[in-house]
Prior knowledge:
By secondary structure, the protein is α+β, with helices and mostly antiparallel strands. It has helices spanning 52-64, 164-181, 214-233, 279-287, 293-304, 308-315, 318-327, 333-347, 351-356, 361-372, 378-391, 395-401, 410-423, 425-433, 438-448, 455-466; strands spanning 3-11, 72-73, 76-79, 89-92, 103-110, 113-124, 128-131, 141-144, 151-157, 192-199, 206-211, 241-246, 251-257, 267-268, 275-276. Strand 10 and strand 11 (206-211) form a beta hairpin. Helix 10 packs antiparallel against helix 11, helix 13 (410-423) crosses helix 16 and helix 15 (438-448) crosses helix 16 (455-466). The longest helix has 20 residues, at 214-233. The structure holds zinc ion. Residues 18, 21, 23, 36-37, 39-40, 149 line the site of zinc ion. Zinc ion binds at residues 18, 21, 23, 36-37, 39-40, 149.
Amino acid sequence: MTKIGLEIHCQLTKLESKLFCSCKANYREFEPNHNICPVCMGLPGSLPRLNQKAVESATSIAMALNCQTPEKIAFFRKNYFYPDLPKNFQITQLNVYGDMSVGGEGYVDVEGKKIKITRIQLEEDPGRLIYEGASDRTKITLVDYNRAGTPLVEIVTDPDFDNPRQVRLFLNILSDLLENLGVAEPGLEGAMRADGNVSIEGGNKVEIKNIGSFHDLEKALHFELTRQQSLAERDIEIAMETRHWDDRRKITISSRSKEEDQDYRYFLENDIPWVKIPQDTRDVLKENMPESISSRKERYIQKFDIAPQVAEIIASDRYYSQLFENAYSEHNAKDIANLITTDVIGFIDTKEKQQTSKITPKHLSDLIDAINAKTITRNSAKVALQEIVNSGKDTKTILEEMDLGQVSDSSEIDAIISQIFEDEKQAVIDAKERPETVNFLVGKVMQKTKGKADPTKTLELIKSKLNQ
Ligand SMILES: [Zn+2]
């Protein structure tokens, strides 16, 4: 039986400052080694001060993942020596004398299967090592401590996954959930990293370390399962070890034998007192949590009769759901939702485009009003949308400037149809014999009017002309 478990590291990128000092949590905007202080550099005599907001964000994540959250939490030192760790220990959490990390015993539902969350812990990120050239052959390694001490939440699952596909689905759900909570931006480079533990029937557990993309993780898990199965078939013992994913060669490579917990000589971090999180504080946190993606989806379906697939797409993306929430009114919610999933998504399909797009909720409601009033066609709305996304000018101006008003004048459409009947004699004969081919003629009218002819009226007029 295949068993896969995950450890996911997620940066709390929405926080102002690091976990134990006032350096910026957003280390990305600094020159190397310009976002550091005696605390995050571990200089003698410096003392950590815990970021309260980080504890609150981590607790909200625990709650959103259906975890138990304890009354008191504690921090531990995890000792190891590595150039990216200036203190020679990492401040993290450990459930060794009972539950002392921010959360545990939660679950996430993935296509009807409960994936159990073992625990959630709050810890600091180490610095970054930058290798000049390939990491196994390089002579020069640079270190940047700007990231050292930034707040990180580690989410550990039970080995509940049966296959790599389930892992990918889980990670998609998790990253939507973190984004929805407003605590993280999983799309940022390095903001969400995962380790996978893989074992097959009776074999030792192998850990695959530090993969930055979900796509690569899925490939690495596939490779690792195949490697283990081939060893097992030849009766070769699977070594308990840590392996790295080599993205260039698409294989995992052995990096070092896996440390056990005792190798880290964990002990309580006595520079940080135990932190009490009373029930009423946790109640307030729970009340202030944003609506969950699943309940938002349910609301869209129940209240507005929106199709489940459409509701799912909008509810699981913070940007689209905010656009929808601010654009709809009682009478047009369904139309707005459909406009977002059929057309808007095509123009705004990345986080970068979400940031640069000039579209506002009013643009959407104005467009739907114009379609429903038959001032423009669905087709023209799409043309206008492209321009709105780029320029942000108001809908009325764009419709006038681009001459997108709908042609519904019968005589005008009739003249165009007569011309097309002349040009497409064979298609006219076909349409008389096989009525289902009439769309070809409708398409020609649309082409000629650049999508501006009223499609219902056009069809009516063509049909009556065919029967003459
Ligand atoms: Zn600092």
